Amino acid sequence: MRLLYGFCCLLLLALPCRAVEVVVHPSVSETQLTTAQLRAIFSMRQTRWADGQAIQVLVLPSDTAEHNSFTRNYLKMFPYQLDAIWHRQRYSGIGGTPQLFPSVDALLNALEQTPGAIGYLPQSTRSAELRVVTLHEK
Amino acid sequence: MKSNITVTVLSVSSLLLSGSLAASDLDWHGFVAQGLVQAADSNAVNNSGNASAALTELGLNAKWQRYDKFKIAGQVVYLNGGNRYPEGVRLDYLFADISVIDRFDHQLNLYLGRYKNQHWLYSSTRDVPFTRPSIILPQSVYYDVFRDIAVASDGIAVKGYRQHQYGELEYNWSFGATSISDAQGQLLLGPLIRGRARQKYVHQASVFWQPADSQATYGISLLDSEFEYKPAESDLFSSGDMTVQRVMLNWRYQLENWELAAEVTQERLSINGFYQSGFAQTQFGWGGYVLARYRFQHGLTAIASVDYYTRDKDDRHGSNLQTAGIPAHFGYQHTLMLGLSYDFATRWRLQAEQHWVEGTGRLSPSLMPDLALNNQRHWQVWALQLMYWF
Questions:
Q1: CB within 8 Å: B124 and A46
Q2: Residues B208-220, buried b or exposed e (16+ Cβ, 10 A)?
Q3: Is residue B37 domain-resident?
Q4: CA atoms of B330 and B318, how far apart (whole Å)
């Protein structure tokens, strides 16, 4: 049992991830999104919500545990792949890039104050102002 | 096609002058890169073969979006790549971007003006140092002499994405042409030309497919282009037409640390005239590369590629060239490349690579080989480049 506990602790330490959930500003009516839809949004290709409101994508730096967890678990991608897509969009002029925030607190604050915003937060960070979006697997 | 650019530039200018573009609508970025490069036994970089600082790339791009479905984007670059492409400032792209479909499962954009080539794995980012995998890309597909012609064209383009439960489809179509400067014409055809080369049109289409829950992407792209040469009054060469047609398959597989990419192409080159009136030749070239990257921790990445190119698939060793007095090694070019890149700070990268090359089939000029400077079958290139982007 002790061996199993030790193995689990090592496994947790080895994983550079931190459980996150996808959240949106209350002005957004969507409550469920698929992986493909999240990819389209975070790749900055989908720029409007279904009601026509502009999508505002807010993220943490690519090397943070939260961003790592989000890209792997929700987008089924690696952070460097998303970076490459953003670089391609930005430097070939065909798309935008997300708004970057240096800390979870700054991201939380911006999500609460930006209509149309979507981002992610650690599961331990609760906000009554934001709504959680669940992953809908078709 | 020039009129498209003129219209776009005038449109941007009038918007700026009318004050209808607010500062908050403007998004701009750029990059600076400087390096050292040497190809001792060929004219790949310079005619002397000495180490050179001709590895300069400066770029500034901007995007204006005032309206929901309409934006304008452009990029200006300064390049000094020695013999690889003409030195100087160029407008890499400047286009109006119109969002036609913007749904959750389907996005489609229309581009008017000088649009960027989106049809190959690295065609849209080959002009930005830190977004391409190596300093010098595999020449079978990304032939430096064609850089300006391949990066962007003046005309119309369409790009779409379709999300489906079985995967994601990216599709591209474009039709346009690129104006060829005198310096560009000399790199392509030879330093002795006195007339003007012109691209009549380039028509391209491509499709990329990534299955759901897969880290692999598969693609196919098609290219059809025609060029013409109009000689000067006293010219060694005759008027001529050249047709280039490409079929290319590509594949990319991305894991946490490993990334593999490959493109294979068959290129049909048909020449009528040019060398002399009545000359006619059609040949099919084959090319392709496999490129691997491994990401270590702390920003260190190793890269390796194997590149294969033969000018004529029916004469893969260049034997037939010898009957015309041209050494056989002008019929092919095969390269092994090893390199390292190190992201030592945010937005800073140092990259180094070494190429071992056999053959000179992808050196300039393309149609009139430089027999004096490229007389070695085996040659090497090393390059070191420091880059910063913002």
A1: no
A2: bbbeeeebebbbe
A3: no
A4: 7
Average pLDDT of chain B, as a whole number: 91
Predicted structure pTM score:
0.87
Contact residues, chain B, for A46 at CB < 8 Å: 102-104, 107
The answer to whether position B18 is within a domain reads: no
- Would residue B372 count as lying in a domain? yes
Render pLDDT for B218-269 as a digit per residue (tens, 0 to 9): 999 999 999 999 999 989 899 999 999 999 999 999 999 999 999 999 999 9
Interface subset of B 245-264, CB within 8 angstroms of A: 254-256
Closest Cα of chain B to A1: distance in Å?
32
CB B195 within 8 A of CB B41: no
What residue ranges define each of the domains in chain A, with the CATH number in brackets?
A: 17-135 (3.40.190.10)
Q: Answer whether A92 sits within 8 Å of B125, measured CB to CB.
A: yes
The tally of domains found in chain B comes to 1
> Which chain A residue shows the shortest CA-CA distance from B99?
A47
Residue A136 contacts B, CB cutoff 8 Å: no
Is B226 part of any domain?
Answer: yes
A37 shares contact with chain B (CB less than 8 Å): yes
Does the distance separating the beta carbons of A93 and B61 come in below 8 Å?
yes
Residue A31, chain B, CB below 8 Å: the answer is: no
Query: A48 Cβ partners below 8 Å, 6+ apart?
Result: A54, A55, B68, B102
Confidence of residue A111 (pLDDT cuts 50, 70, 90): very high
CATH code at position B246: 2.40.160
pLDDT at A17: 59
B13 CB near a chain A CB, below 8 Å?
no
Q: How far is CA A6 from CA A17, A60, B113, in A?
A: 19, 31, 61
pLDDT in tens, B8-24: 444 444 444 444 445 55
